[in-house]
Amino acid sequence: xxxxxxxxxxxxxxxxxxxxxxxxxxxxxxxxxxxxxxxxxxxxxxxxxxxxxxxxxxxxxxxxxxxxxxxxxxxxxxxxxxxxxxxxxxxxxxxxxxxxxxxxxxxxxxxxxxxxxxxxxxxxxxxxxxxxxxxxxxxxxxxxxxxxxxxxxxxxxxxxxxxxxxxxxxxxxxxxxxxxxxxxxxxxxxxxxxxxxxxxxxxxxxxxxxxxxxxxxxxxxxxxxxxxxxxxxxxxxxxxxxxxxxxxxxxxxxxxxxxxx
Length: 261
Known about the structure:
The chain is an alpha/beta fold. The protein is 49% helix and 16% strand. Strands 1-2-3-5-7-10 form a 6-stranded mixed β-sheet, sandwiched between helices. The chain has a 4-stranded mixed β-sheet with strand order 4-6-8-9. Strand 2, helix 1 and strand 3 form a beta-alpha-beta unit. The chain is globular and about 60 Å long.
């Protein structure tokens, strides 16, 4: 691919944004390639976990506003609206991916790049990372799912403050705010993320997928609906091959080998 590198190892897919000279700003080509990769990961049973990170000293500085192809597609209200809906589709695709996702944030994550990180299930940041909903500083409004993600992650008033001012937060400040799971030293980032991803890749994929779906829906359903969803999901799990394998492994005092069935 032109803008992404994709590596697979023992169930873990690592996608690296490859535009270091632009701090991995998202070009039109990247907007095209990213959904292709997400579709492949969703469909491939051997892909258990997705890790997203950036090359060089940045995670992603947001949409590349200097990319001529990006700019041409935002001319006129109709073209801009069509392009934004396409970008929204990518955000939803990441959100709905039926597998755990981890953002390994190695540097600046701004604008759509910030929400690309926050749209992952887990966020691990280098102590050198920085986060910003910088849109207002560019005369723009929040996109790539930020208006949905932020209130759920940090509450409505904090979300408004983060977005209204468009200020830059350090990794430690982002962790205190609740948008980062862990902060580690720069040299340890990919090692820590790799260990987390490897652990997840060895777990039963069906329960992880169902838990992710249930948690994502938790703010939009009633307690009764959530309990019914849990009941249906758990009944399916009790009758799965992986649950039987887990019981055999427990009785035989060995590590279970899950197949996703």
